[in-house]
Design brief:
Largest sheet: 8 strands, mixed
Structural class: alpha+beta
Order of helices and strands: HHHHEHEHEHEEHEEHEEEHEEEHEEEHEE
Distance between the termini: 57 Å
Length: 427
């Protein structure tokens, strides 16, 4: 949500920021709606004041036995009682229209975000690791994964496309990855583990920016709830409608949860394999902090995600997203892209975003700085640390062997019960 006072005071700055996002300026439209709402609010306040004054004056007129004046005042009050509800409804409608307009506008990009229309304008910041040199042609995980327990056929039969069942050693590797990520984020990087709700209400998704614009990307239940597309939704809303004590900041949360996405806008993309699923698990990272601390918190979260890839020995690159490729709620985003040998390219495995106060305003999440009387809106950040399914794919492809087996990364040994390789099942 955007600050209407900022738009009133800085309309040109607001429009320039929207232009960097590839959008037309909207300050004139917004200020017109705001002016109309404020005029109605003023008219309503004047009417209420008149009604109150007239009501008080009736008693005085009656006491003075001035019945003509009392009757005139009663008529005035009756008229106001008839007109004020309609005026109140008009003011309410004007506020709803203004808020709906503001809610549909994406976050403004940070000043150091590169301008561009799409991913072609993203900037590669760095690379880590060297892709393994293979003496055989690398296979796609969708081709050799089934012999290791990655079952697409049975899942499709029961649930349709973009679902998979993991069996035996494959399920064990998936669980090992998830537990390794969660243990690392809690024990080394200062995140508190949370087991949050998977079903949430409208206002919860509104708070983090998924609603109303992205409803088609979500799964809706028959009782009006939504399945979370990411634990960011539940974790960030833990501070909804709260004034967080300054001494508690920063707050860092992590959760391992299933995530559910309809993938409505991904027709034709990654239809094979385990990269883009309707249901998947992810270790999410969320940070709640003071505005002045959010740049450093962004770097901390980014390092926390990178550390998982480095520990697993997976080559990756870090990319700063341009204005046209960022998510709706983000002010600045880094993507981490892991190397996939079968595609001979890097693919996204984590997005780490600083949302500034955009989500906090939608959630009314604030804090009171030490020694100050007034509250301020918090800054919120989120990122994957990591998407478990995509990490599984990266491990399968980067650690694959010519005989169809997959070597288990050493860091996962404590989680694998002595299993050092995934071996293909005998046909």
């Amino acid at each position: 949500m955007h600050d209407i006072r900022f738009i009133r005071e800085n309309p040109q700055t607001f429009d320039a920021a929207l232009k960097r996002r590839g959008l037309d300026g909207m300050s004139a439209e917004i200020l017109k709606l705001d002016e109309a709402r404020r005029a109605l609010a003023t008219e309503l306040q004047v009417g209420l004041a008149k009604r109150n004054e007239a009501s008080k004056a009736i008693g005085a007129a009656m006491a003075a036995k001035d019945m003509a004046k009392a009757d005139a005042l009663k008529a005035e009050v009756a008229t106001l009682k008839d007109t004020l509800p309609a005026l109140e409804e008009q003011e309410k409608q004007a506020l709803t229209t203004l808020e709906a307009t503001l809610a549909a506008i994406p976050n403004l990009p940070a000043e150091d975000v590169p301008e561009g229309a799409d991913e072609s304008a993203n900037i590669e910041v760095s690379r880590w690791g060297t892709p393994r040199s293979l003496d055989f042609t690398p296979q796609d995980h969708a081709d050799f994964g089934p012999s290791l327990g990655l079952d697409f056929e049975a899942a499709a039969a029961m649930s349709g496309a973009r679902f998979a069942a993991l069996r035996g050693q494959m399920a064990r590797l998936h669980r090992a990855l998830a537990q390794f990520m969660l243990d690392t984020q809690t024990a080394q990087n200062g995140y508190e583990e949370v087991n949050p709700p998977l079903l949430v209400r409208d206002q919860t998704l509104f708070g983090t920016g998924q609603l109303p614009k992205f409803a088609e990307d979500l799964f809706h239940t028959t009782d009006g709830r939504w399945l979370i597309p990411t634990a960011e939704v539940s974790l960030t809303n833990l501070v909804r409608e709260q004034i967080v004590p300054d001494a508690q900041l920063p707050i860092r949360y992590t959760a391992l949860t299933p995530c559910f996405r309809s993938e409505a806008g991904s027709a034709g993309r990654d239809t094979r394999g385990y990269i883009r699923q309707h249901q998947f698990e992810k270790v999410e990272l969320v940070s709640i902090c003071r505005p002045e601390d959010s740049p450093a918190e962004h770097e901390h979260m980014l390092a926390s995600a990178e550390g998982i890839l480095q520990a697993l020995g997976l080559p990756y690159r870090k990319v700063l997203l341009c204005t046209g490729d960022m998510g709706f709620s983000a002010a600045k985003t880094y993507d981490l892209e892991v190397w996939l040998p079968s595609q001979n390219t890097y693919r996204e495995i984590s997005s780490v975003s600083n949302c500034h106060d955009f989500q906090a305003r939608r959630m009314n999440a604030r804090y009171k700085p030490e020694g100050e009387k007034n509250t301020r809106f918090l800054h919120t950040l989120n990122g994957s640390g990591l998407a478990v399914g995509r990490t599984l794919v990266a491990v399968l492809e980067n650690y694959q062997n010519a005989d169809g087996s997959v070597t288990v990364p050493e860091v996962l040994a404590p989680y694998m019960g002595g299993l050092t390789k995934l071996e293909p099942k005998a046909k």
